[in-house]
Amino acid sequence: MIDAELLKGLPPAEAERVLALGKRLLLTAGAELFHLGDAAGSLYLVARGRVRLTLPMQVRHHEEDILVEECSSGQTVGWSALIPPHRFTLTAAVPLETEVIALGREALNAYFAAHPDTGYAVSVNLASVIGQRLQLFQAMWLREVQRMVELRCA
Predict the structure, then answer these.
(1) Which helix (H) or strand (E) segment is 33 a member of?
(2) What's the CATH code of the domain at 92?
(3) Which one, of 41, 1, 2, 44, lies nearest residue 26 by Cα?
(4) 40 and which of 26, 80, 93, 153 could share a cystine (Cβ 3.0–4.6 Å)?
């Protein structure tokens, strides 16, 4: 069993039942797991390997993928599957062979409806994942604002 941040605090048997809802996917180096704006039907737990989360931006008249975060074993990507409007907010690709567990929104929601204590625990853990991502974006935004202010003052 992987030590997944999304399942933190659940008894091991319950964590296994949630993981059993998923499907293991093996991705080859360079594969894209999802793309910014795609419909988000599943969230993913990284079982092994790495997932690079990027944001495409226009840089000097061409599009470039800007690294936001790199996730490794136990981390959650694709949380948009559980948060309306269910569209991915970043692009996820793997730099090396990576295995993820895809947990479908419908299966999770049905399980959480039948097991509200588990749904609550996962929701609290998901809120923590989202909060960490927001902190990353805030730090990136503050660095950029500071750079712009310094350029204006120079």
Answers:
(1) strand 32-34
(2) 2.60.120.10
(3) 44
(4) 80
pLDDT of residue 39: 97
Number of domains in the chain: 1
- pTM, full prediction: 0.87
Whole-number Cα distances in Å, 37 to 27, 56, 81: 20, 11, 12
Q: Structural domain of residue 94, as residue ranges?
A: 5-153
- Letter for the amino acid at 5? E
Closest C-alpha among 49, 33, 47 to residue 1:
47
Extract the tokens encoding 84: 């309306």
Going by C-alpha positions, the residue among 113, 124, 104, 121 that lies closest to residue 19 is 104
C-alpha to C-alpha distance for 4 and 102, rounded to whole angstroms: 13
> What pLDDT is attached to residue 1?
67
Structure tokens at 77: 């990507």
Nearest residue to 53 (alpha-carbon basis) of 74, 68, 72, 36: 68
